[in-house]
Amino acid sequence: MSATSSKRRPGVRPAIAVTVGEPAGIGPEISIRAAWARRHEVNCVLLGDAAFLAMTAGDIDPDIKLSALSLMAVRNGGLPHFGPDRITVIDVPLDAHVVPGKLDKENGRAVLATLDASIEGIQAGWFEAVVTAPLQKSTINDAGVKFSGHTEYYAEKTGTPQVVMMLAGPQALGGEQLRVALATTHLPLKDVSAALTQDGLAQILDIIDADLRNKFGIAAPRILVCGLNPHAGEGGYLGREEIDIITPAIQAAQARGIAAAGPYPADTLFQPKYLQDADCVLAMYHDQGLPVLKYATFGNGVNITLGLPLIRTSVDHGTALDLAARGPGLSKADSGSMEQAISAALAMANNSLDNKK
């Protein structure tokens, strides 16, 4: 499976799949708002229940027009390219009526079906990238399907043994873009140290370097690596992970031609004087790097899965059930992160396309 289609028809907007996420959350609303806002530059194809999305669009703005297609029709005839006066929807029906703000496990499998349709669409060449709205993990698990998140699901379904979670966004700490990748993701803090290995960090650095080159168009990526312990271990007095695991992995990466440096104390690394010389920071665990990034970029941040044989971006927030409970068009949900995710996916698709020429 390639990360993007090798050709585009002249004059046709690139097509990107947008899975609308948990139907009881703000995902459907922000997906519609963002797709409509960016409709002149990209053909955002919504994957979700067509009737529900049409109702939601009408509540947001009566001028928003949707055109629904069945998944079978697209399989048989390909994806039609409508103009920017409407949003294309591939119908993935829900199993239960949606009450905004209230979760229903009966719709858990339908949410997963939108992810499956996005993967199918990439494989079939309908889409150049996938953007995902937030979903509720508990709803899917309550539906009887073991599910730990988008990242893991796309990795499993594409047969990808190692992926890397990275968040990115414009920032006020110096430089044009702040990117933070994670060596571990959704783990209890007590399990992080045992999850770090030289080989694992080596694979992560390889993936970051390759995707920054191929999908971000950065010719010589510079990666700054955080230590695990306070003060990066204080020479071994506060832990030996830096000495035994992190430093050897960095040195091995350098020997492979990767511009990685560190380990640096995380409490001092996130300063303009360091970040201005970095294309990405690799943090060792979730709450080491993401609080800084979200403070600097929240509302405009983008979640990106590196290492997949496809381009996948997402928002940097959750389902916001409390906002959704106000009702479509009344929640005033901010679609800024979704718009940024669409723009990031389009830019990555363009870079991938350029690298194939």
Spans where pLDDT lies below 50 across 5 or more residues: 1-6
Q: How is the largest sheet built, in terms of strand order?
A: 3-4-2-1-5-12-11-6-7-10-8-9
- Ends: how far apart? 17 Å
Q: Structurally, how many domains make up the residues?
A: 2
The largest sheet is:
12 strands, mixed
Spell the H/E element sequence: EHEHEHEHEHHEEHHEHEHHEHEEHH
Shape: globular
By CATH, the architecture of the largest domain is named 3-Layer(aba) Sandwich
Sheet-strand content, in percent, reads 15-25%
Radius of gyration: 21 Å
Task: Supply the helix-strand structural class.
Answer: alpha/beta
Count of alpha and pi helical runs: 14
- Count of individual beta strands: 12
* Residue-averaged pLDDT: 92
- CATH H level, superfamily name of the largest domain: Isopropylmalate Dehydrogenase
